Amino acid sequence: MTEERRRHTQVAVIGAGIAGLGAAIQLKRRGLDSFTVYEKGEDLGGTWRDNTYPGAGCDIPSHLYSYSFAPYRDSAVRYPRQREILAYLHRCAADSGLAPHLRFGTEITELRYEDETGRWRLRTTGGEEYTADVVVTAVGQLSLPKYPALEGVDEFAGNAFHTARWDHGHDLAGRDVAVIGTGSSAAQVIPEIAPLVRKLYVYQRSANWVLPKPGERFHPLMAALLRRVPGAHRAYRSLLFRRSEAVLLPALRRSRISGLLRMMAGRHLKSQVTDPELRAKLTPDSAIGCKRIVLAADYYPALARDNVEVVTDPIERVTEKGIQTRDGTHRESDTIVYATGFRTTEFLAPLKVTGRDGQDLHETWSDGARAHLGIHVPGFPNLFLMYGPNTNLGHNSVTLTLEAQAGYIAQCVELIAEREERSVLDVGQETLDAWQRQVDEGSRRTVWTDSCTNWFKTDDGLLTNNWPHPTTLYQRLTARPDPTAVRLLPAGRPLHP
Ligand code: NAP
Is 3.50.50.60 the CATH classification of the domain at 2-144+343-490? Predict the structure, then answer.
């Protein structure tokens, strides 16, 4: 094989997390074999490779947090933990024979569309270059850790790390630890570390609504039923899916169900926290669902422990020995855990992406990321985004949108490949505008655009991350490429028009 051919692939997939693996599997299933998955890490798994903090797991049931075609083998587990999800993804990749396609330790830093050839040029951190006819970005929305811009962070003499970059060599036993943030990651890590540490300070900027999470494992009878009765797995998955569509989505659209959820969350708080002062601190002042609801049975009891203090006074600065709050109190700690989430609205960052006529993707998105179906950006032919703008699900399992995208993109690749003349697929601005109107109309109805901080919207309040309509609508829209929306054009253009 010539060097040029070795460096060219029909489809370049960037990222080997759930999305990228899903795309690779769908390509394989359609007999498309010329593809490479570039992964910056040394293993697959994306967010489930990176988030190894104690207690890391998924609060969406395993039967739904999976590809529809690859059920979990161990049906005894209702909520999968990080290592189970990672093992599941390894199994899916192995079952589909993806190993020869995975290129680890290869971070793509730049994508450039060549107008003359109609191909994409990929550049790595090491300066290597590859070319591809089609590029699929699957870099996640929750992959870049967000560190708070606090004064004095560099002065801290202890050990500080983010939940997504857990320092397993740092033993927390007997230490004084500060956790900053009280989202879903914090709610999972706090119950695990609270019994180990001497003192735990939890710095809460705003409280989250918490709903009780059922037990991690099924009753043995239910587990046996799911494992042995044909069709039981599918029926259970379908029930979970329909329940989320019928109950959670209306709740997030401020229906009467939101009142019911709020009542349940209020009762949960009351039953688990008896101290009125702590209860007041933990009572959110935002609408339920505006922030992602925390699902946990062990979070409040951990906060109520004698060695745990919930600090609600705003952080003034980090010092050499701890954290000082605005009221002047200094609390010493030798470890700081940043449970402060991710840079979720910076889609595709830090990748530099240049499309047709030298158009810069991040400049195009300076007012917020937008893409038709969350997949296509006009002027960026043959570039397909997975988990792009407005495709996160706040009410159901994100694996559903990712699987829909993988199937859709594989069909687009087939369409492109079927043409006798080398072609590129693009959408027009009017298609994106119509899509955006549909998204914006839905966003206005949801509670996410209320006045609370959440990771679904930009600082200007534009909802860029979540899909505000039923999942079934997204699945319908991505069932097959719409010939009135996508355009196939000859690849490249003559050097002398
Ligand atoms: P997050 O939900 O974005 O929470 C970040 C937390 O850090 C918030 O409490 C935030 O406070 C706080 N924070 C941020 N900047 C701060 C600052 N400068 N000073 C003080 N506090 C600050 O992040 P996350 O908990 O990592 O979760 C992110 C998402 O990952 C989740 O919503 C979920 O979708 C996913 N996740 C899922 C699971 C699961 O079980 N499925 C588990 C973990 C994570 P404010 O609320 O005031 O902004």
Answer: yes
